Give the backbone structure.
Amino acid sequence: MSVMATINKVFTYQADWSEKEEFLDVIYWSRQIIGLVLGLIWGLVPMHGFVGIFLFAALSAGIVYVWFTAVQGVDEAEYGGAWELTKEGFLSGAAGFFVTWIIVYTGLHVDKL
């Protein structure tokens, strides 16, 4: 399946995800994008501390959960339950988030290193 066809399925309401791995890959790469975007926003704001970490975790999990339940309407049991889908790619997305957040925040808001 082509990349454009997969991207179209992401934005299609209740698309047919016949290949489980394709759906899991979409969740994984969506987490990476969410992590980078939120890291950029948190660095620009400037957000710091536990509040930033908590908000990232809540938004990252919430966005993915709403997408696969309300928008895609997949059968969670096919993938091992909602928890398995919610945690798919979470740690690697968090790593990208932290790196982006730290670099942007340090570059814009720290005067001396």
About this structure: The longest helix spans residues 20-44. The CA atoms of residues 25 and 89 lie 9 Å apart. The chain is about 70% helix and 0% strand. The mean pLDDT is 92.
